[in-house]
Amino acid sequence: MENLCIEQTKSTPTIQFDVANNKLRIAGQSYPENAFKFYEPIFNWLDQYMAEIDRETVLEIYFHMPYINTSSSKCIMMLLEKMENAYQEGRKVAIQWYYNREDESALECAEEFKEDLLLPFTIVVLDDE
Amino acid sequence: MNLNLLDLQRSLQKNGVLITFSGRFTQEIIEELGDAVRKYMETESTQYKTHDVFAVFIEQTQNAKNYASCQSEFAYGERIANSGIVAIGKDEQGYFVSSGNMIVSDDVGPLKEKLAMIASLDKIGLKKLYKEQMKKTFDSESNGAGLGLIDMARRASGQLQYSIQDIDGQVSFFTLKVQV
Predict the structure, then answer these.
(1) Is the pTM of this model over 0.90?
(2) Interface contact B147-A71, CB threshold 8 A
(3) Of B3, B6, B12, B2, nearest to B87 (Cα)?
(4) Chain B touched by A108 (CB under 8 Å)
């Protein structure tokens, strides 16, 4: 399976799916014109990946999203629910959600996503560079 | 000279308007204005407030734009698409984001119902409603998730303020003001 790589734009995050290392990274703001259209290939890619990899492999997903509009939030929730279902079926998934220390809104957003999920979900604070 | 820019400017200043745009919303215009809003706010206010003002601005303009795209095939499509306006400003109560656009008069009833339902909820109720709406399947008809108004109500310091003015029986003008 090939890596998935989508470059960042002003309103869409960068997507880096590193198959060899089982890491998916989503970083940047998200408020595209059509969120579902943007995230749909990622959902499809994830489905294919989950079907192909070994059940014991741990998929790590890194998020660093300072701003997410409502329709993108819904897509992120869909992605997380997909992972939650996989986790409930015994698959190995770990979420790491990064936010900048002074960005309280991003922390609240991460906490709200985490609330309804049982999968390993770590919120990590980043200090200013 | 018919257009008196000085009058227009005085009116904007009197109402505390800092940034405004009138016309057809495109994703590019939303992104550029959004940057301007954020840069302005960063020099003026806290990061938290900047985030909320930016978020409300994005939800309002994308709502108006999505509504216009849904109407584009119908009789009032052009009028609706060209009727967008947004203003970011500051008054006695703090920062506000106001937006306006035409809507088909048939949509007035359902919109009022939705706004009344939102107005009846406190922050906890709004969060619950937001989460419920989040779990619904995507409405493929529109680009939206049906979350914009609820999200704005959650960020607003008070109630969402709105007015709906009938224009000619066919279309009405919807104005929404969110105090952040």
Answers:
(1) yes
(2) yes
(3) B12
(4) no
* Domains of chain B as residue ranges with CATH: 5-179 (3.30.565)
Q: Is B84 helix (H, G, I), strand (E, B) or coil?
A: coil
Q: A105-114 contacts: CB < 8 A, separation 24 or more?
A: A105/A67, A105/B47, A105/B48, A105/B51, A105/B52, A105/B55, A106/A65, A106/A66, A106/A67, A109/A65, A109/A68, A109/A73, A110/A63, A112/B127, A113/A76, A113/A77, A113/A80
CATH topology of domain A4-126: Transcription Regulator spoIIAA (3.30.750)
Its ipTM equals 0.94
What angle do the packed helices B148-155 and B123-135 form, to 10 degrees? 150
| Residue B135 neighbours by CB distance under 10 Å | 11
Contact between B119 and B104 under an 8 Å Cβ cutoff? The reply is no
Closest C-alpha to B22, from B111, B102, B95, B77: B102
The one-letter amino acid code at A41 reads P
Pairing between β-strand B17-22 and β-strand B85-91 as defined by DSSP bridges: antiparallel
Q: Looking at CA atoms only, how far is residue B119 from chain A in angstroms?
A: 19
| pLDDT tens, position by position, A79-108 | 999 999 999 999 999 999 999 998 999 999
